[in-house]
């Protein structure tokens, strides 16, 4: 029998918790990009090690907006030594002055303050993929900001007194590491350093739980009891607007169904995001009435992407799934965790809360209709055709854009050029560390412009441009430079003229032949 000594095993992989050391930087739009290639996204599978630095960047931006970590159960803004669970909230003396307090209950699959890593690490950046942009939107709506001050600029800061009344719960990070003195999600726990690459992950024990936060149910109750129901943090007459996302929404419905009388007096209105709760699961009559009158849901829907378009309503009919409140389209993204990252969805939710705030006690959802949403019936079933279904969902007629291969190639190249130009603008020109990558990007942009011009000429010559585009291109025509002479139809013809006639392959062959002749002449010399 063979045994391998523990000290001979390969060490566990180690990666620095620093974006620049990993080859990334944060550009002026708050997006994570590669230092060598400023137009390229964060590499999602670079490592599965805990994403410390990304969360630290988000925390820094929230701190500049007056949103800090509040550690439970000690209720302190100074990180304690010992078991604790952090949430996000303004300083107590600021929070208790707010007449409206917005409470976000996230999914238990997310880290504190993170809405969607898939968007945070790509197009939306650190601000849009976390609660940073939502906090900025609240600040913009509730505070008189200086003229010409852009709150949505990356790194924009306000004084603590202007912080929005925002409390963000943390149902995802409920496992406490005594070694590192921090709360972790289950995913982050699995990424903790191991003795070697061959060892199992660090085991969880009862000692890794925090009192009052054994699971998301206890966590939500504890935050309500210790913060939201605590007059030292939230004024007794403050209006509480709750936004519950996915599993956070499901857990909140369970709690309200069991203890409605305890929590209902403080909840003014409720917005649900992509929950899977169905009406038959709601048995408490007062809760069901509240959901019908003062709650709405936004979710991924094949019927409409418009967050202002009602796509489903509670109904007395017996269906497999019945919504618990009026339900609206969840925006352009088809992933549930990305519904609340959508700016139109955030605006729709805040507009709903503003309407409720006019007279909370008397507010009742209007009588929404589904007249613009396809309603299948035995005589008029929903079409199985993808294009028709999409057109019907948006209330339009079928209009399939038939474009040529040349036009498609041109549009792809133009989009790539636009992305590269945007990346160049977002990359600081004065940073010496970014200078080589910026210079490479400028060269690639020059090449891409040439490719776009060539594709435009090719599509124009072959009649492949979209309707109306060809006329505009011809109107912008200017005399072109002449090129080298190449053999064509027994004559020596300008290569550029051959290209503009649409004979790109012939021109390329001729130019290649000239290059070969020049090389042969040099060899003979």
Automatic annotation (TrEMBL):
The keyword Transferase does not apply. One of its GO terms (molecular function) is siRNA binding. It holds the Pfam family Arb2. Residues 15-302 form the Arb2 domain. InterPro entries: Arb2, Arb2_dom. GO terms for cellular component: nucleus. GO terms for biological process: regulatory ncRNA-mediated heterochromatin formation. It comes from the Eukaryota. Keywords: Coiled coil. This is Arb2 domain-containing protein. It comes from Massariosphaeria phaeospora.
